[in-house]
Structure formats: structure tokens, C-alpha cells
Amino acid sequence: MVQALEEAKKGAEEGEVPVGAVLVSPQGEEVARAHNCPVKTADPTAHAEVLVLREGARKLRNYRLVGSTLYVTLEPCAMCAGAILQARIGRLVFALRDPKAGAVVSGLRLLDDPRANHRVELSEGLLSEECRRLLRSFFQERRRSSKIREEQKNPASGF
Fold first, then answer.
1. Which of 95, 98, 107, 127 is spaced 20 to 30 A from 8 at the CA atom?
2. Pick the catalytic residue: 7, 49, 141, 150?
């Protein structure tokens, strides 16, 4: 999870929502790592999880990543949860729940759907405080910057 947090920090530096992911083989070797970059790439699917699964599949020459572990700093959304199922990931470890968009344990529970043709072992909470601090500071800075831009557009708005 330390490496996933490093990736999330890279995303934050690029102005992306700081989510990082690392894919580890069944033998415990890092296969790929990625961070969110939908803004930079103008690609709404460029979430850390999707990018790391793509890279892992490319490196291993197989889209089925059976037995692999995916570490992510934030609970995956519905799109990413679907990709995790399609890739046949063996284990998902995420740091924080996402009450707004999470689709693993918070809202939708896509990995538990009895119609799914695969089961994923879940773990949560690893480095949760560090990941929470990063997300919180990112969004606080974003709100502060937005307020400053608004005040520069309309100086009278501060009254």
C-alpha cells in the first residue's frame, strides 16, 4: 500500500484526484502501478485501477490476472469493480471506503453480487489515515484555489 500511496501523491501533484494502485503477482512481485489521470489524458476511464490492470495484463500477456492482489488507496467505483471482476483479481486491498462512489462495500456491492462469476477476497483499512490525509488536503486545496479564482473574477463577492 505504501507504493499505491506514492502513486496517489503523484496524481495529486498532477492535479488529479489522488488515487493510486499497485498490482502484485501471486508470487509477491510488483507487476504494475498507476494513479488516476482522467484529466490529463481526457479519458474518463483513466482510473488508477483500470490503468494498473491494463498494464499488468499487457506485461503478463493475459487479461486474467488470477491470484494477483490489487492494492488501491480508495474503494473502487462501479467501473473499476467491474474491471476487477473481469480480470479475475484474487484479492483486493483498499485503504479507505468511498461513501459517494464506492461499489465494493459502501454503496453498491458489486463484488458480492451472486450473479458474478468470480469471488474476490477483500481487505480494507491498510494505511487508511495516510490516505485520508492526502485526499482531505487535496480537496481542501482545490476548494481554496476555487474560492481564490472566484474572488479574482468578482472582487465584490467577498463582501
1. 107
2. 49
Q: Into how many domains does the chain fold? A: 1
Q: How many Å apart are CA 97 and CA 108, to the nearest integer?
A: 12
Residue 16 CA to residue 37 CA, distance in Å, equals 6
Residues 6+ apart with CB under 8 A from 5: 20, 73, 95, 127, 130, 131, 134
In sequence order, which residues have a C-beta less than 8 Å from that of residue 150 and are 6 or more positions away?
Answer: 157
Residue 49 designated active-site: yes
Give the Å distances, CA to CA, from 147 to 37, 150, 155: 24, 5, 11
What does the pLDDT look like over 101-121, one tens digit per residue? 999 999 899 999 999 989 999
From residue 136, alpha-carbon distances to 17, 56, 96, 130, 143 in Å are 11, 29, 12, 10, 11
- Which domain, by its residues, includes 92? 2-158
**pLDDT tens track for 43-70:** 999 999 999 999 999 999 999 999 999 9
CATH number at residue 113: 3.40.140.10
By the 8 A CB rule, do 32 and 55 touch?
yes
Neighbours of 150 (CB within 10 A): 11
pTM reported for the whole predicted model: 0.90
